[in-house]
Model the fold of this input.
Amino acid sequence: NLTPAQKRQLLAQLLEKKAQQAQRVPLSFAQQRLWFIEQLQPGSAVYVIPAVLRLEGALQIEALQRSLQAIAQRHGILRTRFGADNGTPYQQVAASVELPLPVHDLSQAPDQAQTHIQTAIATPFDLTQAPLLRCQLLRLVPQAHLLVVAIHHIVADYWSLRVLMAEIAALYTADVNQQLSPLPKLSIQYADYSSWQRQQLEAADSADQSSRLEQQLRYWLLELSEPPPLLDLPTDYPRPAMQTFRGARASFALPPALAADLKAVAQRQQATLFMLLLAAFQALLHRYTQQTDIWVGSTVTNRDRRETQNLIGLFVNNLVFRAQVSGELPFSQFLQQVRDTAIDAYANQDVPFEAVVDALQVDRHLSHNALFQVMFILHNTPTQSFTLPDLQITALEPDAATARFDLSLDMYETAAGLTGVFEYNTDLFKPATVQRLVGHFETLLGVIAANPETSIGSLPLLTPVEQQQFAAWNQTAQAIPDQCVHQLIAAQAQATPDATAVVFAETALTYQQLDQRVNQLAAYLVEKDVQPGDGQRPALEGQRVAVC
Done:
């Protein structure tokens, strides 16, 4: 009953739908985890990766916009949207997208720049709409701008930011100089990688490859065979029923001499600086929790293939470092345990973390991460430097005010030494608590550098200021009043009747209860005709009693 025109229209719709389905690509394992999180907590900005550059000089805004548009056309992942078909997620790459570069003139109110930055990185993405990249310019004065970049983690990792900034520099320079793009054509796109990753794990082309991945998966199933313990850090607030991801940061820097000493200790122990810092962090967590089975997460770039080096996308993989900590164990021996564990973990890093979690069939909780609640990362990649014509560039550190874990420690190894940042969930910890943690970690590192043979249980944590404070608190000596003990107890019972006076095992007595017991004992002694100065009397059945 359709007219020829209606038939043509229906056929065109069917062909278009078939073409769209043909363009759908399965998600990589890491993308699938982030997509799943988005379904549980839609509209969250916790997985927005921010970057801010200060550009001083004669900025050519049109050239910068063209450079960004060219990068979006160059990398298919920046033209990718995400959807689901009967609950199965997929990614779909568009032929082209518009990547605008709005300019906000703040020359009359430069103090509003921070507000604009926070809004930009706190605004969530809609994963069903491409691009999952936002850029904007904030003009402070005619010769000073801030380039604010926000990109969703499902299409990028922190290595991708390095690629993005390097390509901006290359394309902007070529555009200003009226030259062609110097960037070589990409041999693969991220969609190729995600399809390849699925094939490797689910339907490997060769028996050798399948056997290798299965062997690595078996390693993790054995290493993480017991149910993961919840790291019971002493928090300031009770854990919410659902993880909130609200966070803050506390930064610190180690003295250059201490950083050099730590590197020397690691070398003598035939360990890397990462292994030493991880061992120190796990020792600190043991001291805080008194737990002996400590699980800490970390990451690997997972870009060991040449084709992925200059590709924007989510390649990073998570690893779990598990340690058995004992207070009697010398730190040097514990470091050897951590070293061996790290070597084995790196040898089995090809299996996607999400595949490990699925194979372990770990119970998932909305209140905390499944396998680990604490993350440690050492950033030791050389600092990236690039230039733009007639521009001076300064990278700024935006604070996203989020925390993906209960506690994360990022250490940075630079030419100037070692710096660190604790990122923490503000629904669990107060700022003062984390500042004390920073001081304790620095104290612990100082002792490790001086004497790595110190047992973990003997590693001091208190800072010099805390030691002085602790000594002052213990200056409690007072002149003894010319009264008997029972008289002092009676006076205290009048002043603070409900305060705890004595504790033995599971029994505790308030001062009022203790005074009552004293009076009961006194009445018993009077009944037995016990006099002051008496020691042992047969009426007390051999019990020695001192009487005031």
About this structure: Residues 539-548 have pLDDT under 50 and may be disordered. The two ends are 114 Å apart (CA to CA).
